[in-house]
Write a structure and sequence with these properties.
single chain, four-stranded mixed β-sheet, Muramoyl-pentapeptide Carboxypeptidase, domain 2, alpha+beta
Length: 293
């Protein structure tokens, strides 16, 4: 999960260590970060890069210790708007007996054996989310807190597996909907990352998959909700919110994959229930998968 980023002026940046303290930062080499396009993604809207303690890129910005946390960066290009962040991850090895500290994680599929493919290997690390960093933007439209597992409300810090390819794909899907003539401002994230212990509760016939991509940080269940009513918007303006609207969202994700094959993954449609309206699952697993609708 070592990142390759764009040009960065670290001499005028500051470090925010898990929302605790601001420390002036000097002397990082811009050459360590690679191209600007890889920093901001295909969408041009990514605002965070991820790295592990000990990675050379981490050391160039966060110092030799490279403690997990959020390190604001100053972009060296006027094409990039807003602040950029380096997020240093908590390594997977910090999980002991199914927990990191007091935060319950559980056990990943294949954690104790050989995964069926590289995409099912346990995450290499997690974003450490504190009350202070909950609202950190990972892209123009999305914050890290939107992807937090929906349990353990009062336990801090929390930990999230999050793949930049997913965030890029979601940003591109918003843009694609607008190109298609559906003026969408944002997505609501109904479900982002799920810890294995949370995911396990819903595993069974007609429920969650035991190897759900949500456990790997590259999947999200989303819907446009610009009117803020907690349901998918009436995209086709026919006076109803139904699967026709969900299919429009799914078709936008399909179009994104055709234009950006590196973001290939799953697109699944889900109908409304008594608990929620229609929504679409979007992931960036690296292989094509389709279901529902």
């Amino acid at each position: 999960m070592s990142f390759k980023g764009g040009l960065v002026r670290a001499s005028c940046a500051a470090i925010l260590l898990a929302g605790v303290a601001l420390v002036p930062l000097r002397g990082a080499s811009a050459a360590a970060f690679g191209s600007l396009s890889s920093l901001i993604g295909s969408s041009g809207k990514l605002k965070a890069v991820f790295s592990l303690p000990g990675d050379k890129e981490t050391a160039s910005v966060a110092g030799a210790a490279g403690n997990p946390g959020v390190y604001p960066l100053a972009a060296g290009d006027t094409a990039v708007t807003g602040n950029l962040s380096l997020i240093v991850l908590k390594p997977f090895s910090a999980k002991v007996n199914g927990r990191i500290g007091t935060y319950r994680m559980g056990t990943w599929p294949y954690e104790k054996g050989t995964p069926r493919s590289a995409s099912y290997a346990p995450p290499k690390g997690f974003v450490e989310v504190t009350r202070e960093t909950f609202g950190t933007h990972v892209s123009e439209h999305f914050t890290v807190g939107e992807f937090v597992t929906k349990d353990q409300r009062d336990v801090w810090p929390k930990y999230v597996a999050l793949d930049r390819r997913l965030i890029d794909k979601l940003e591109l899907t918003i843009a694609e909907l607008n190109l298609m003539g559906y003026p969408v401002k944002d997505f609501a994230v109904m479900s982002g990352f799920r810890t294995p212990q949370y995911n396990e509760r819903g595993v069974g016939t007609g429920g969650r998959s035991a190897v759900s991509r949500h456990q790997y940080g590259d999947a999200a269940d989303v819907y446009p909700d610009d009117n803020g009513d907690g349901r998918l918007d009436d995209l086709n303006k026919d006076g109803r919110v139904d699967m026709k609207d969900a299919r429009i969202l799914a078709s936008a994700a399909e179009a994104v994959e055709k234009k950006n094959p590196e973001l290939l993954g799953g697109v699944g449609l889900y109908n409304s229930t008594s608990a929620h309206g229609p929504f679409v699952h979007i992931d960036a697993r690296g292989t094509r998968a389709r279901w529902g609708g």
